[in-house]
Design a protein that fits this description.
By secondary structure, the chain is α/β, with parallel strands linked by helices. It has three domains: 5-113, Cobalt-precorrin-4 Transmethylase, domain 1 (3-Layer(aba) Sandwich), CATH 3.40.1010.10; 116-220, Tetrapyrrole methylase, C-terminal domain (Methyltransferase, Cobalt-precorrin-4 Transmethylase, Domain 2, 2-Layer Sandwich), CATH 3.30.950; 233-278. It is 44% helix and 17% strand. The chain is built from eleven helices and ten strands. The chain binds S-adenosylmethionine. S-adenosylmethionine is lined by residues 12-13, 82, 84-86, 89-91, 114-116, 160-162, 185-190, 215-217.
């Protein structure tokens, strides 16, 4: 019977965040596949974990998978860990999970900290709907295309960024998205943890004076709803009446008419109430 691949989340800064189940898993598997064996060795030394390590990172993932998969198929169990946080999230791992799924090898999760979720929670920006965009590409064309695709994005946007690229990224964000609320979250779970809740223009001004330090997660407010009505209020009320004639209650009819006409739901609702009252 095949062994199991365990996706083990590790701390993004504070070693106290390694969960008891993560520790137990790292101590019980046959071997650990690590993105950076030096980083993982430090973690293992700290927690007195003695297990063989296999390197699995972006540039050796094909060769390394060719070693890991047969071992799993032969019944050994493996814990996959990245430098920090959840493996497979802006980290190698997604290929290994896909290959295991294809081969019928069980994959189990031992979730741990994840920088994007931690920053989002800390940001003070809307969290109900968000889009995680990972790192912006460095190369001109795909970077421009990626940024352009975010221009009309209404959901909160989450990006990862390294300190030495922060200023260029803020400049590009300002140019493409315009000035918006942003929370720059850095050193999460560490002594100097910070969420700078400001605007993109103010952040740019600040970091042009103060050198950015530590890894960043940028949480950016989505684009404002485009509320330019596409027709007059009178015409929009006719659309609402059409939905009402179909038997919908006023609230639902207002919601659908708002989506179709560009008027706000509450304006339509109140305009219909006032009109009906005066009829
Ligand atoms: N797999 C990781 C996770 O679950 O969050 C993400 C790995 S990705 C290669 C590394 C990026 O995550 C960093 O460049 C930074 O944007 C973000 N990050 C990781 N740890 C962080 C921390 N303690 N504070 C702020 N950002 C962090």
């Amino acid at each position: 019977m095949a062994g199991t691949l365990y996706l083990v989340g590790t701390p993004i800064g504070n070693l106290g965040d390694l969960s008891p189940r993560a520790l137990e898993t790292l101590r019980s598997v046959d071997f650990i596949a690590a993105e950076d064996t030096r980083v993982t060795r430090k973690l293992m030394t700290h927690f007195d974990i003695r297990k063989p390590l296999v390197s699995y990172y972006e540039h050796n993932r094909v060769e390394s998978a060719a070693v890991i998969l047969p071992r799993l198929q032969a019944g050994e169990s493996c814990a996959l860990v990245s430098d920090a946080g959840m493996p497979a999230i802006s980290d190698p791992g997604e290929d290994l999970v896909r290959l295991c799924a294809q081969e019928g090898i069980p994959v189990a999760t031992v979730p741990g900290p994840c920088a994007l979720v931690t920053a989002l929670a800390l940001s003070g920006l809307p969290t109900q709907r968000f889009t995680f965009e990972g790192f912006l590409s460095n190369s001109g064309k795909s970077r421009r295309e990626h940024l352009a695709s975010l221009k009309e994005e209404r959901r909160t946007i989450v990006l990862y960024e390294a300190p030495h690229k922060l200023i260029r990224t803020l400049e590009d964000l300002l140019e493409v998205l315009g000035d918006r609320d942003i929370a720059l979250c850095r050193e999460l779970t560490k002594f100097h943890e910070e969420a700078r809740r400001t605007t993109i223009a103010q952040a740019l001004e600040y970091y042009q004076r103060e050198r950015p330090r530590g890894e960043f997660v940028l949480v950016i407010r989505g684009a404002p709803a485009n509320r330019t009505p596409r027709m007059s209020l009178e015409e929009a009320l006719e659309v609402l009446d059409r939905f009402r004639r179909d038997g919908l209650p006023l609230k639902e009819a207002s919601r659908l008419a708002a989506a179709e006409t560009g008027h706000s739901k509450s304006n339509l609702y109140h305009a219909a109430v006032v009109r009906d009252r005066n009829a």
